[in-house]
Design brief:
mainly alpha, 3 helices, SPF27
Length: 182
């Protein structure tokens, strides 16, 4: 077990190169980590063929075009004078559907204008409180980590002093044995 605040022999360039080579060989043995590889191909739209097509078109630099508005037009049946009653009924049904869509849009806009600002403020307040809570948790974890690292450093420096004292004592004992036996 290494004591980074005590064992200074690990700070040499040779030791750092050796450790780096060990880490590199271990990483190769582990295989690739998909989360660590930038640019991996992740299929976001596997169940949405239109979205996938638009995404591919966007990546190629092409235009995805606009919204197809042909279904929103109120056109009379082709050849209005000779159109059958069924064609006119379909045109009237289309007009009713368009009217209902517009009424729903108006109702939505009225609701947004009446309540949207308050809902936006409430949502922003909730987001701000979540951000504050997460920041407080992060600060608490940072403080714990700092305290832990300070404790480790103190323990290692204390152990280093003890190791130095024991090493000196061992050297003295070996020196005495060599003098007595020699």
């Amino acid at each position: 077990m290494a004591l980074p605040y005590v064992d200074k022999e690990y700070e040499s360039e040779a030791a750092k190169a050796y450790v780096s080579s060990l880490i590199a060989s271990e990483l190769q043995a582990m295989g690739p980590n998909r989360r660590a590889l930038p640019g991996t191909d992740i299929s976001l739209f596997s169940n949405a063929p239109n979205s996938r097509r638009f995404s591919k078109q966007q990546h190629r630099g092409g235009s995805i075009g606009g919204i197809d508005t042909t279904r929103f037009r109120l056109e009379p049946p082709s050849h209005a004078q000779t159109a059958s009653e069924d064609q006119w009924a379909a045109a009237v049904a289309n007009a009713h559907a368009q009217l209902e869509v517009q009424l729903a849009r108006i109702a939505t806009l009225e609701l947004v204008s009446a309540f949207g600002a308050n809902q936006w403020k409430i949502a922003n307040f909730q987001l701000e409180s979540m951000v504050a809570r997460v920041r407080a948790e992060a600060d608490a974890v940072k403080a714990e980590l700092l305290a832990l690292n300070k404790d480790r450093k103190t323990d290692q420096l204390r152990a280093g002093a003890e190791l130095a004292r024991l090493d000196e004592k061992w050297n003295d004992l070996v020196d005495r044995v060599l003098r007595a036996g020699g």
